[in-house]
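README: folding subset

This subset contains proteins for which both the sequence and a predicted structure token string are available. Records are stored as plain text. Below is the entry for Membrane protein (305 residues), shown exactly as it appears on disk.
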Amino acid sequence: MTVIINALTPVLALIVLGFLIRRTEFIPSTFWPAAEKLTYYLLMPAMLIHSLAGKEIGSSPWLNILLTVGGAILASVLFVMLGWLPRRHMGGAAFTSLFQGGVRFNTFVALALAENLFGKEGLFLASLGAGFMILIINVLCVSAFSVAVGHGVFDLKRLARDLVRNPLIWGCTLGIGLNASGVILPAAMDGSLVLIGKAAFPVGLMAVGAAYQPGNIALHWQPLLTSCGIQFLCKPAIAWWLAAATGLSGVAAGVAVLLFSVPTAPSAYILSRQMGGDHDSMAVIITVQTCLSFFTLPLTLWLLR
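--- output ---
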């Protein structure tokens, strides 16, 4: 339990800090849109390039991990669609919040728990799985925005344009390309990416807190309830089943389930703001899921053991 509290408390603390800063007007309200734009176009791509470029696959069960996380992600998309069917009246922007709330994962929490629970081997395998997930999820989320915010019309040109222009996908592509090519970044450049990328997490979480309105829970309870059910019930179960089906065991299986048991990512709010989503409901989903995970993660880990 202590490990989970230590991993989740910084996340919640930064959300609360952003909430207090916005409510006390310690910083002018004009700061937040600029901070969100900076995070989206610079801080997060830098973090992605650094985190994906430096992973050595080696003799790890990378194919089994890829099959497990890829299958679980596609299953989570299916769960989202099934959860959306009885709520088709919600607008396209609200659907994107449901989509991100049920598909994304909090990388920081997942990696912190993997290292504390499974040591260096767990951290490496979690980083490997997260690398696969980041690219797949970002492509799916940008595609969902392109269709949903475009009034449900599938426009191939619009989708291609949104994918090509998305800085997060560029960050994933460059990081994986550097990894696959074996190119090692100069120490000065890699160090710069590390420093820039480290700012993405605190700035993004404070932006979530700044946008959070307590009264919005009642307004956005439908996407909130559905996304929480998918995130904390459906995804861990399907990840456990796929891990067994692909032959993963021990630490690798535990890491696979862990990746699909954490709350959604704070980057979901930044993407929602920049691509015309319902950022109010997204802020509610991120905050509530983070709070709920204090209770759901101990139960998941107990079942896992």
